[in-house]
Amino acid sequence: MEKQKAPIDYKNAVIRVQGLEKAFDDYKVLQGINLELYQGENLVVLGRSGTGKSVLIKIISGLLTADKGKVEVLGQDIEKLNDRDLQALRIRIGFSFQNSALYDSMTVRKNLEFPLVRNRKGITRKEIDTSVETVLEAVGLSHTINQMPAELSGGQRKRIGIARTLILNPEIMLYDEPTAGLDPITCIEINALINEVQQRYNTSSIIITHDLTCAKQTGDRIAMLLDGKFQREGSFEHVFDTNNDRIKPFFDYNFIK
Predict the structure, then answer these.
(1) What's the DSSP call for residue 6?
(2) Residues with Cβ < 8 Å from 81, sequence gap 6 or more?
């Protein structure tokens, strides 16, 4: 799948991370991370499991606090925000969780309605219905509107999870291992959906993954995270044009059988 080139504004960084450090007890997870995400860009943060990728986006979204460093999201310093302002900022950020985070006791319709009713006071029934139908159409699952999550495949749950984040029209999307646990064909479909969301909703996205196919198909830029630091950054081809014995085996495992 050839990725369609996105219109990226390299003069407008919607996320800026400077000198970010995070440790859990004596284990240093992030050690001086610097990162910029530009308007309209898909940035893939690539690395092995346990390297701190998910910790990074949890700090960016205010779900975890950094030990040191500065994080600016849409021009706002995360650390300086009170609870109310942080919640308002989070509405502008779509977080696609690894497990889709759907409510098992709710239909697809109710799952999608929930963030609207919670965050859009005074929204009408007609506006809710239109929003639900629009995002379901965007992820290609209009026919599932009255189904329960247990009736959906893993790929369908991923799509509904993405739809639920899109319903608030976020400016930034954070994807945590979007293809984890899916078969190869469904992975390709999810990768295509990520690119479609970028084009259709003009989102800026950070995609956390250890899946090189996902990285290659969705990333405008790749940042390789090893030992708590970004070791290489650039296009997919540039990142893996190396004999580095920590990076090259990562590529070989995924693409050489």
Answers:
(1) P
(2) 62, 89
Q: How many domains does the structure of the chain reveal?
A: 2
How many C-alpha atoms does 29 have within 13 Å on its Cβ side? 21
Instruction: Let me know whether 113 and 225 are in one domain.
Output: no
CA nearest 69: which of 25, 32, 23?
32
pLDDT tens sequence for the chain (257 residues): 667 777 899 999 999 999 999 999 999 999 999 999 999 999 999 988 778 899 999 999 999 999 999 999 999 999 999 999 999 999 999 998 877 789 999 999 999 999 999 998 889 999 999 999 999 999 999 999 999 999 999 999 999 999 999 999 999 999 999 998 899 999 999 999 999 999 999 999 999 998 999 999 999 999 999 989 999 999 999 999 888 888 877 777 665 44
248 and 130 in one domain? no
Q: Do both 117 and 226 map to the same domain?
A: no
| Residue 181 and residue 73 in one domain | yes
Spatial distance between the Cα atoms of 226 and 194, rounded to a whole number of angstroms: 25
Q: Which domain holds residue 160?
A: 98-169
Given the structure tokens 């070989």, which residue do they identify?
A: 252
